[in-house]
Each structure stands twice: as C-alpha cells, then as structure tokens.
Amino acid sequence: MAAYVLAPIAGAFVATSLIYSMRHKVRTDTQAFVTALQQSRAVLDNLDEELSAGSEASGNRQKVFPPSYVRPTRPTLAEEMKARWNEHLTGFIKQTSEIEWDSVFRNAYNKVKGVVEEVAPSSESAFSQISGGATLRDPVPKAPGDPRLLQPNTYYLGQGTSLR
C-alpha cells in the first residue's frame, strides 16, 4: 500500500524538479543572450561613432550598418486625400482642355439669340442693342494702345472682353 502513496508523490517530485531545472536553464540562457546582445550593441555603437567621426570631417556621413528591412510606410489620410484631389483636378483639367470652346460659345450665343428673338417681337433691334451690333465672329477693331487686341484670332465678346 505504501507503493500506491509513494508513486504519485515521487512522480510529482520528479516532474517539479524537471520543470524547475528547465525554467532555471531557460532563464540563465536568456540572461546570457541579453548580456551578449547588449555588449555587441555597445561595440557596434562605438564602431559607428568612430567611423562617423572620421567621415564627418570629409563631409559625408553615412550609416555604417543600414537596416536589413525597412517597413513600407502607408500614406496618411491627409496624403491620400491630397492624392485623390490631385487626380480629380488633373482629370478635370484634361477634360476641359479637350473641349472645343469655339463651338460651345457659338451654341450658347445661338441659344441666347433664340431666346431674345422669342421674347422680343422686333428681335433684330433688341438683339443688336444687347450685343452692340457685334457678333462672335466679328474681328475686334484694332486699338492702337492695346497690344492684346492686335493678335490674330481675337474675337469680341462685349464690354472690352476678348476671346482668343
């Protein structure tokens, strides 16, 4: 009967001593590893300071040991919004540069002329009073003092405004 009592106690003692010895071994190895890493870091820092002191005199400081892995950075929310805004703005500018503005102004002019003709019974006199008698294709009279109006392909829009 004593065997039934001593066997579990002996097993618990052996298991506890194995766990303790393994824990002690891991702790001492970890402490030795940490000490070795701290010493190697101190040596590398000293070496970096010595090498950088020599290269600072020549004017170009370089890191002696570049990192083996640099984690890629993600853009911040503000940078992402700026990038999207710039994409939309670039697209808008590209689209507006592809528009044939001459035909747009001609169509708008014809529509305004049609509305004025519908509203006023004597449309020719009302429209000529609004536009001053000039049309979109009438060349601007050459003014001696304004060099902008001396350029070719300049058309009158009204009140001194020109479209080139």
UniProtKB/TrEMBL annotation:
A single Gene Ontology CC term: mitochondrial crista junction
Transmembrane helix listed as a keyword: yes
InterPro entries: Mic12
Any Pfam family the entry gives: AIM5
A Gene Ontology BP annotation from the UniProt entry: cristae formation
Region (Disordered): 52-71, 131-154
Membrane topology, record value: Single-pass membrane protein
Predominant location: membrane
Locations listed in the record: Membrane; Mitochondrion inner membrane
Keywords linked to the UniProt accession: Membrane, Mitochondrion, Mitochondrion inner membrane, Transmembrane, Transmembrane helix
Family (UniProt): Belongs to the MICOS complex subunit Mic12 family.
SUBUNIT field: Component of the mitochondrial contact site and cristae organizing system (MICOS) complex.
Role noted for this protein: Component of the MICOS complex, a large protein complex of the mitochondrial inner membrane that plays crucial roles in the maintenance of crista junctions, inner membrane architecture, and formation of contact sites to the outer membrane.
UniProt protein name: MICOS complex subunit MIC12
Organism: Tilletiaria anomala (strain ATCC 24038 / CBS 436.72 / UBC 951)
